[in-house]
Amino acid sequence: MAVIIDGKAIAKRLRDAVAVQAANLETKGIIPGLAVILIGDDPASEIYVRNKERAAQKAGVNAQTIKYTADVSEVTVLMKIKELNLDPKIDAILVQSPVPAHINEELIQETIDPSKDVDGFHPENIGRLYANRSGYYPVANTPRGIMTMLAHEQIDLAGKNALVVGRSILVGRPMFALLQQANATVTLAHRYTPSDTLMHLLADADVVIVAVGQAGLIQGTSLKDGAVVIDVGINRLADGSLTGDVDFASAQEVAAAITPVPGGVGPMTIATLLQTTVELAAQHHQIELEQAWQNI
Ligand SMILES: NC(=O)C1=CN([C@@H]2O[C@H](COP(=O)(O)OP(=O)(O)OC[C@H]3O[C@@H](n4cnc5c(N)ncnc54)[C@H](OP(=O)(O)O)[C@@H]3O)[C@@H](O)[C@H]2O)C=CC1
Ligand SMILES: Nc1nc(=O)c2c([nH]1)NC[C@@H]1CN(c3ccc(C(=O)N[C@@H](CCC(=O)O)C(=O)O)cc3)C=[N+]21
Ligand SMILES: [Mg+2]
């Protein structure tokens, strides 16, 4: 039976470390500021935003949410982003994805100041990530949080076969970049990967990261014995409960370690968002965070 990776507990450790760093910054008169822009009234997004606000407050991060109705004009959102770019109290800007179809999401991502780009969506930051550049730049929080989890579980990636299923800018593609940086041999599967190909890839994968949004996509019988399984998917079942993309019961029989949904990747995403916000605040004030994330 697999070890169940307790994302909630690891996220708590990370949030506590963020609180320590935020308290250090506060002695220098700095309170990290995060602005979240939420367009439309998607109930799931509202839950994420509420979770973020609560966690931010506890960690000493000043979070504000700017809400627009779904019919807001693109120019209104762009002007708000430009205002936040110039606001010295704001260190991090997040525009909740997806945005309504009449708004150009690429333009939104390119308008956010790269030094306030807490999701790491700006082409400048993505370029740095894909080029393995040195120096600090923000990286998407879900994949980064997954790397923190794997490190906490002492899962060594060097030389391992890692399979990422899903290629979004939010999860799959930055995940690919981070795994190859950790010296795994990485494969990226997606909608056009034939299912028999996916089965061959799964049979060979030591580490599987699934971010698709389809309950039951991966069954335990498809996994390699002893695989590490990271389930990013968030799917709501008819009874209102949440489930991932992996069939947990069957996967648990075969895997060495697996993340649950809820209580796995989701809490890590929120804690890492706060971690990145604190780092961006330190960057803006040219402060070196000392011994920051040592014991996560
Ligand atoms: N726990 C957390 O912190 C987070 C959870 N999520 C959840 O993760 C899931 C994925 O999110 P996100 O990446 O934003 O979603 P997107 O819809 O942006 O991307 C989904 C990806 O899955 C691919 N795909 C679709 N169907 C299949 C299939 N049958 N087999 C293989 N690949 C397929 C798509 O391919 P193509 O590129 O061809 O369209 C696409 O690359 C969602 O459930 C979301 O709610 C997301 C972010 C954070
Ligand atoms: N610009 C942008 N950045 C994002 O990072 C981003 C986004 N847009 N759009 C939506 C997705 C999704 N996402 C989640 C965050 C937290 C949980 C989370 O906290 N999940 C908990 C609990 C969920 C619950 O119980 O409601 C869990 O899995 O245990 C889930 C999903 C961030 N996303
Ligand atoms: Mg997409």
State the name of the first-level CATH class of the largest domain: Alpha Beta
Supply the CATH architecture of the largest domain: 3-Layer(aba) Sandwich
SSE sequence, one letter per element: EHEHEHEHHHEHEHEEEEHEH
Number of helices: 10
Largest sheet: 6 strands, parallel
EC number: 1.5.1.5, 3.5.4.9
Domain Tetrahydrofolate dehydrogenase/cyclohydrolase NAD(P)-binding: 141-284
Domain Tetrahydrofolate dehydrogenase/cyclohydrolase catalytic: 5-119
InterPro entries: Aminoacid_DH-like_N_sf, NAD(P)-bd_dom_sf, THF_DH/CycHdrlase, THF_DH/CycHdrlase_cat_dom, THF_DH/CycHdrlase_CS, THF_DH/CycHdrlase_NAD-bd_dom
Describe this protein's structure.
It is a single chain. The protein has 296 residues and is α/β, with parallel strands linked by helices. The protein folds into two domains: 29-114, Rossmann fold; 141-266, NAD(P)-binding Rossmann-like Domain (Rossmann fold, 3-Layer(aba) Sandwich), CATH 3.40.50. 42% of the residues lie in helices and 15% in strands. It has helices at residues 7-27, 43-59, 74-86, 105-111, 123-130, 141-152, 172-181, 195-204, 248-254, 265-284; strands at residues 3-4, 33-39, 62-68, 92-95, 161-165, 185-189, 207-210, 228-231, 235-236, 242-243, 257-258. Strands 1-11-8-7-5-6 form a six-stranded parallel β-sheet, with helices on both faces. A three-stranded parallel β-sheet has the order 3-2-4, with helices on both faces. Helix 7 links the parallel strand 5 and strand 6 (185-189). 5,10-Methenyltetrahydrofolate is lined by residues 47-48, 51, 94-97, 119, 141-142, 170, 234, 242, 261-263, 266-267, 269-270.
